[in-house]
Amino acid sequence: MSIAQISKIIELWANREEYFENPVQDYLNIDKQSIRVLVWEKKWNFIRQTPQNYWPAWSEWFILLNGYNCQARCQYCYLQSYFKSPDMVRFSNIDDFLEFLNNFIKQFKQKNPDQTLIFYDWDFKDSLGYYGLAQNIENINKLTNLFQNFSNTFLEIRTKNILPNFDLYQKLELSENLITSITFSPQDIIDKYELGASSFDARFGFANHIICRWGNIGIRIDPIVFDQNFDVSLGIYQNMIQKLNKINPKNIVNYSIGTLRLKNSLYKALKKRDSNIVNNLVSEKNFRRYPQELRTQIYTHFGNFLENNHVYICMDE
Asked: Cis link prior to 164 (omega < 30° from 0)?
């Protein structure tokens, strides 16, 4: 999606609860021409701590809350369980984020000088989404420049929405405290469930672009979707991983993998639409997900396929 495809950019200084969370549009059946970009200042709640089993226990990790939603319309997207509107939100006051983070990190490091800190700039949006890309990159550069003042403090950005021309990405100041990660899915899954997201080939091309410029990337395969029988689904992902294994393992910081998980409300909405993505899911702790035995099999196979010792499982035991 380009700016020209966004019907309206609204500067809002209103209360988010009064506007954004009202159920104004059908998230699952949205005409992308009607998506709006809402821009306002954020006054509080600049970060939140991640859920349990989100990332390795040796680090502390937090989510930056500086944008909501992205232009892709992934059928499984958990943001549909958070937000009742598909409109994209971007916050204009990056300096307030920088001031907060500077004070937060200083206080944290005084108490835990050797602890690794990781901030994620993508949980509620795509880090390199098409809208305002130059501004997104400028803000990322400001964050990484701040983090360079602190030891063992990192920013991870993540994307699955790649521009066909990489020129703008040249403005991204790659550094040792920036982890540039790409979410990969097999093209079969992209075609069925990731409406508006970039193709596998575009993501793979961007991975090589970052490697050529800097040398290291993170690879995220999450969610893993087994919507057919086990052998067929496993074969689809094995074929994708064979392509990913063409990347030198030395250039991959780590892999993070996780299986499909849906809030019950989203599961019910997708089930009404007869979506195959809900196949094989069972109820578990307020989620619908694959049975533990199936998830264990998936993780075991993926661990065998991936040519990297640093493979982490997200949001699972």
From this structure: no
SS3 label, residue 275 = coil
- Per-residue pLDDT tens over the stretch 235-281: 999 999 999 999 999 999 999 999 999 999 889 989 988 889 999 99
Tell me, what DSSP letter sits at residue 186? -
Q: Describe the crossing of helices 230-244 and 200-213 by its angle, rounded to 10 degrees.
A: 30
Alpha-helix runs per DSSP H in the chain? 16-19, 79-82, 94-111, 133-147, 187-193, 200-213, 230-244, 264-272, 292-305
pTM: 0.90
Q: Where are the domains of the chain?
A: 3-313
- Per DSSP bridges, beta strands 116-120 and 252-259 are unpaired
β-strands 67-68, 88-91 pairing = antiparallel
> What is the rounded distance in angstroms from the CA atom of residue 90 to the CA atom of residue 277?
30
Strand-pair category, 287-289 with 282-284: antiparallel
Between CA 38 and CA 83 the distance in angstroms is 14
CATH of domain 3-313: 3.80.30.30
- What are the CA-CA distances from residue 3 to residues 36, 37, 137, 203, 304 (Å)? 10, 10, 16, 21, 42
Is the model's pLDDT at 21 over the cut of 70?
no
Q: Name the amino acid, one letter, at 271.
A: K
Q: Tell me: the pLDDT tens digits for 122-138?
A: 888 999 988 788 989 99
